[in-house]
Design the sequence.
């Protein structure tokens, strides 16, 4: 059985971000999901006692997006280090006898 929040736009954008494989697009997908989640939280303020399940799902989604973002930042840092190593290796003068 589908949960009601799974029909919301924020959930679709969240799923898209979590399933994104293209690292170049990941930050944008995460940003889109967060923007829609914030909009949904604003809408839910009108009914604070309703949608407890959705609030829980949003909390989980925001935490998961934070983990995904951290992983992307870690991979980007590893890429920078790798490029620097290759650049240094290639810029060293070759020793010729």
Sequence:
């Amino acid at each position: 059985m589908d949960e009601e929040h799974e029909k919301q736009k924020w959930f679709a954008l969240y799923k898209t971000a979590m399933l994104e494989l293209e690292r170049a697009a990941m930050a944008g997908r995460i940003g889109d999901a967060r923007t829609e989640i914030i909009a949904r939280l604003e809408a839910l303020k009108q009914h604070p006692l309703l949608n407890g399940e959705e609030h829980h799902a949003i909390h989980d989604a925001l935490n998961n997006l934070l983990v995904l973002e951290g992983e992307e930042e870690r991979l980007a840092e590893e890429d920078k280090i790798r490029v620097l190593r290759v650049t240094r290796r290639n810029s060293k003068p070759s020793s010729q006898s």
About this structure: The first helix runs from residue 9 to 19. The radius of gyration is 21 Å.
